[in-house]
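Q: Can I see a sequence and its folded structure?
A: Here is a first one.
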Amino acid sequence: MLLVAVFLVVFFAAFGQLFARQVAQLVETLPDVVQASIDWVNRTFSTRYSVDDAVEALHLTPEQAARYATDVLGGVLGIFGSLVGTLFNGFTFALLTFYLSADGPRLRRWVAERLPAGRQELFVTAWELTTLKTGGYVAARVVLAAINGATSAIVFAVIGLPSWLALGLWTGLVAQFVPTIGTYVSIVLPVLVGLLSPHPWTGVVALAWAVLYQQVENLTIEPRISARAVDVHPAVAFVSVLLGSALFGVGGALLAIPVVAMLLALFELRRSAARGAGPDPAAPGAPSGSPEPARKDDAGPPRPAEPLAAQVPAVGRAAPAVEPG
């Protein structure tokens, strides 16, 4: 957390003014980008679309837009209050994150001690899997977003794309944190800005870069980083994202994959426990070289059965804080 704070301070000290200026310029030019896109569609396909048609298709009248703006912003005081609320929420989130990280084991023990003895082991296992899957997924997304955003910003700056820093960060964040379609949505804005700039070839280069980077990421970078974060079939991940988005909105879509991965891991552990055996050696993430169960003719006293929580794949996992029973 200290390294993240230092990085943010250094980043905004070095690029804060440039980033704010580019974001302002990008917001100012977005209406022109939309209008130019509609004009290109009309010239190419002999249509007569307009911005008003697009707004009407969204069922958004000027009165509704004004009412939404009034409700959301609420004037200058509303904007100031929103900024203060955002800072307060960010501080609260950082404080809770630090507290749960520093005092997580004691909190886990405190909660487990208030459960029946037969449920403590299951609770500890669920806690560890939640930390493992959710933390691994978010950490992998952050690393991939940093790599994608940094490399895209460098390429956009080299080819002279307007607002290269803002567009690079947009590409990295949207591609990694918008489930399923983020990869395709993230590159639309840089390509449009490039095609409608004084040098349209920059949009073509931006599109070629996006295709090239996705191939390299999918084949080399992402498998290495996300190999142990989640292990969910793409079809299951897609359905879980749709279901999470329908039930809980954006937050549900972001957390759907790690939650499903945690539930699948819990199901596999319970099934292994019901069979009286450890995890399936053929399953992904299963530890290799697991010892064979003790036989009756072995010398020495029989060894106790391995706790259920100990069967969790040891990827950044701490020892259980509560002993079974």
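Q: Show me another, different protein.
A: A second, unrelated one:
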Amino acid sequence: MTVNITNVASDADLGYGLGTDTEAIQAYTHYIDGVKQDGIFIGAHNVTTWGMQLQGGAGAWWKLRLLGPGSEDASTGNALKDGEYQTFIRIDGS
């Protein structure tokens, strides 16, 4: 299965087998304050920043949401929703 994100800017969740309203993630180089970071990062539309939030109780899992244009919390205007943390996803491997 292809790893992809939903194509709704306000809720672009990362997953696989999400159905037809999705798009593939892409590999990017990542820069912070103009400095290239080591490794390859995943994202879409030139965005490599993700919001992550712990979901559930027992058997909990992490929800990952791309923080691109239009992804702001509609009620607050903040980039992160309540309980989310900002992260980047770097591909490690040989």
